[in-house]
From TrEMBL:
Stored InterPro entries: A-D-PHexomutase_a/b/a-I, A-D-PHexomutase_a/b/a-I/II/III, A-D-PHexomutase_a/b/a-II, A-D-PHexomutase_a/b/a-III, A-D-PHexomutase_C, A-D-PHexomutase_C_sf, A-D-PHexomutase_CS, Alpha-D-phosphohexomutase_SF
Protein's name in the database: Phosphomannomutase
Segments forming domain Alpha-D-phosphohexomutase alpha/beta/alpha: 11-123, 161-266, 288-381
GO terms of biological process kind: carbohydrate metabolic process
Species, as recorded: Demequina lutea
UniProt enzyme class: isomerase
Family in the record: Belongs to the phosphohexose mutase family.
Cofactor: Mg(2+)
A single MF term (Gene Ontology): magnesium ion binding
Source taxon at top rank: Bacteria
Keywords, sorted A to Z: Isomerase, Magnesium, Metal-binding, Phosphoprotein
């Protein structure tokens, strides 16, 4: 029997598709039943926690996936509107597997799901998501067996508990007063920031003056997309920081599991600089109790990350790109912190999961404890020139990679094949640079990241690699 191909919907790390086309209520119900059979029941679990973002389609999809779970005899605790890290908190605190209904930073017509095992442990292609895909495809053709006793669905609001927990991890009440512009992009940051950094959850007032941009929840994203990786979506934040004379600007993506920063001059802060800043704080915290901090960074983080962490006595460990990879390595090594170039930041104290809000709180704490502006505080953590990630669509990935290898293999160049190809020329003699080219998991794309000790060298290497990739 032929089953539908769901590989375009259920990807390597999550579920993401166009609502009404790729992702319907029937598909969501099948995914719910498949999640029960592939993940929940084999783990001897009987309850799943579900949350959803502010998109118009999210409540209905949450109801549909809950129907699939309950039909297989699994109880559901619905925490309602929340950020993705709010869902991870619920999974961790309740010790239950979870499903978050969100399409993160994707446009309004999209929606999706992020799944985890109990205590927010990642579910990816090789840790159960492939099995969910196969079963869901089958259940769309051959109806799954319903349990003798259906699971129950109950509701529980956990926003206050989430806010209290985060404040317990990073106290913010004793630093100097800060003026903070926050761009929520009409997404979940507009729900969580007032609770955690303000008084909406009934918590004490912090020495923070929050200037809100686009806090009204609106899944159509009427002001700009909730994707801070695209610098065009940070223009309003940069302007507002300068207009208000703010100490810092913060931007959250659609489901608020990532956080980006702008300094007091309106300059965008690289995620690697935040990885250095937070990593050094966590390294000092471990050292205070006689432990060596293990900190994970993905392979396209700045070279400054392992350099500075090693110098401070930490044990930096390189990971492949992707949240399921870094979360698994975090848990395996009991790492206190992890950072990715995409502004995902992971914390041992937060169930080894990522939290944009917790990363923001660390930056605010560091800034509040210092008498220097953010640009000066971070200057030492961003010493190199970087290209950012550049995508190129190619006719043949192997042929494009062969052209790159031919053009850049040579004396003094070290080539590694850990997560794509990384070419490194970094010595005391000659130019210092490295670049990584990785193939997309789902499209004929190559992703390029270049870093060099000097801007001119970075630009020369960047342009040369792109010419090799794009020539045919």
């Amino acid at each position: 029997m032929n089953f539908p191909d769901l590989s375009g919907l259920i990807k390597s790390y999550d579920v993401r598709g166009v609502v009404g086309e790729d992702l319907t209520h029937d598909v969501a119900k099948a995914i719910g039943a498949a999640f029960a059979d592939a993940i929940v029941l084999p783990d001897s679990e009987r309850t799943v926690v579900i949350g959803h973002d502010m998109r118009d389609s999210s409540p209905g999809l949450a109801t549909a996936i809950a129907a699939g779970l309950s039909a297989r005899g699994v109880d559901v605790i619905h925490v309602g509107l929340c950020s993705t890290d709010g869902l991870y908190f619920a999974s961790g605190m309740l010790n239950l597997p979870g499903v978050m209904i969100t399409a993160s930073h994707n446009p309004a017509e999209y929606n999706g799901m992020k799944m985890c095992r109990s205590r927010a442990r990642a579910v990816g292609e090789n840790s159960g998501l492939g099995d969910v895909r196969a079963l869901a495809s089958r259940y769309l053709v051959e109806p799954f067996e319903t349990a003798e006793t259906a699971g129950t669905v109950t509701e529980r609001d956990m926003l206050v508990e989430y806010a209290e927990f985060l404040r317990s991890l990073v106290p913010l009440g004793h630093g100097r007063p800060l003026k903070v512009v926050v761009d929520a992009a009409n997404a979940m940051g507009g729900y969580t920031v007032p609770a955690v950094l303000g008084t909406a959850a009934g918590l004490p007032e912090l020495p923070l003056e929050i200037i809100p941009l686009y806090f009204e929840l609106d899944g159509t994203f009427p002001n700009h997309e909730a994707n801070p990786l695209d610098e065009e979506n940070l223009r309003d934040l940069q302007a507002a920081v300068l207009e208000h004379g703010a100490d810092i600007g913060l931007a959250f993506d659609g489901d608020a599991d990532r956080c980006f920063a702008v300094d007091e001059k309106g300059h965008i802060v690289r995620a690697s600089a935040i990885t250095c800043l937070v990593g050094l704080r966590e390294t000092a915290r471990e050292a205070a109790v006689g432990r060596t901090a293990t900190i994970i960074h993905n392979l396209i983080s700045s070279r400054a990350v392992p350099e500075q962490l090693s110098a401070a006595g930490a044990n930096p460990v390189r990971s492949k790109v992707g949240h399921s990879n870094i979360k698994a390595q975090m848990a395996e090594l009991n790492a206190i912190f992890g950072g990715e170039h995409s502004a995902h930041f992971y914390f041992r104290d937060f169930y080894f999961a990522d939290s944009g809000m917790l990363a923001a709180m660390h930056v605010l704490a560091a800034l509040g404890e210092s008498d220097r502006p953010l640009s000066e505080l971070l200057e030492a953590h961003d010493p190199y020139a970087a290209s950012g990630e550049i995508n190129s669509r190619v006719a043949s990935v192997p042929e494009a990679l062969a052209r790159v290898r031919e053009g850049f293999a040579g004396d003094g160049v070290v080539i590694g094949d850990f997560d794509g190809l990384t070419f490194t020329h970094w010595s005391d003699e000659g130019d210092r640079w490295w670049f990584n080219v990785r193939a997309s998991n789902t499209e004929p794309l190559l992703r390029l990241n270049v870093e060099a000790a000097e801007q001119s060298v970075m630009e020369r290497i960047r342009d040369g690699v792109l010419a090799a990739i794009r020539s045919s």
